[in-house]
Amino acid sequence: MSLLRVEALSRSFGGIHAVRDLSFEVPAGRIYSIIGPNGAGKTTLFNVVTGLLRPSSGRVHFEDRDVTGLAPFRLAALGISRTFQNLQIFFNMSVLDNVMIGRHRHLERGFLPALFRLPQIVRSDGAGRKHATDMLRFVGLGGHLDAAADSLPYGALKRLEIARALACEPKLLLLDEPAAGCNASETREIDALIQKIAAQGVTVILVEHDMRLVMNVSDRILVLDHGQRLAEGSAAEVRRNPAVIEAYLGSQAGGHAA
């Protein structure tokens, strides 16, 4: 069963086609990677799917519901969450509070109940803190709950952002270059975490330039070039595809295949 279905999607900026007539389906419970050269349209595609941009044409379906152009907060309520290529961390807040922000849609709201700290607010806050704590432990940051976010090393900040996205309890998690800027050890931690997330039943769409990570974790890979589909298939199929090797993977593919 397809969790996400994209149909004939296009997005233009002036006369430039960032994404052009693109269609694909993401099966539930899988790790689906999107790769391509710089400027291939990967982040634009993410921004359209997650409601930050409206498509010029085409449709996006989530669980067989047309969600084209819905605002990000409405998509979050349906179960779509994401991280960003550039860190979006609140550095003046604690690690736990950063994740609590990702939990907001599950918390009790209302001006008067919050003002008087009524029992339902106290219970909701307590449950939210417990869930946020569980997410931090899940990503390997359980020992940093009360630490200032700006005290964490870079790789830990990447995992903190993933924990915040998971706090929303998504069915679909989009990760935009989660290993960008990470050293080899940090990349291995991200690799293991992505597989751990998928093992929990969360569908993952991954954009990543680290081909070793992509080839290791992906159930299926879509290759973009100038906003269009160049190839799609398993890691083995993509690795052997001459058009992909020429357009993007190059020596990385040959070395990994050997």
List keywords for this structure.
258 residues, alpha/beta, Rossmann fold, four-stranded antiparallel beta sheet, 10 strands, globular
Summarize the structure in words:
The protein is of the alpha/beta class and 258 residues long. The protein has two domains: 1-79 and 170-258, P-loop containing nucleotide triphosphate hydrolases (Rossmann fold, 3-Layer(aba) Sandwich); 89-169, no CATH class. Helices cover 41% and strands 24% of the residues. It has eleven helices and ten strands. The chain has helices spanning 42-49, 72-78, 95-102, 111-115, 119-138, 154-166, 184-199, 211-217, 235-240, 242-249, 251-257; strands at residues 2-13, 16-27, 31-35, 57-62, 65-66, 80-82, 172-176, 203-207, 220-225, 228-233. The strands form two sheets. A six-stranded mixed sheet has the order 6-7-8-3-9-10, with helices on both faces. Strand 7 (172-176), helix 7 (184-199) and strand 8 (203-207) form a beta-alpha-beta unit. Helix 3 crosses helix 5. The chain is globular. 40% of the residues are buried. The model is unreliable at 251-258 (pLDDT under 50).
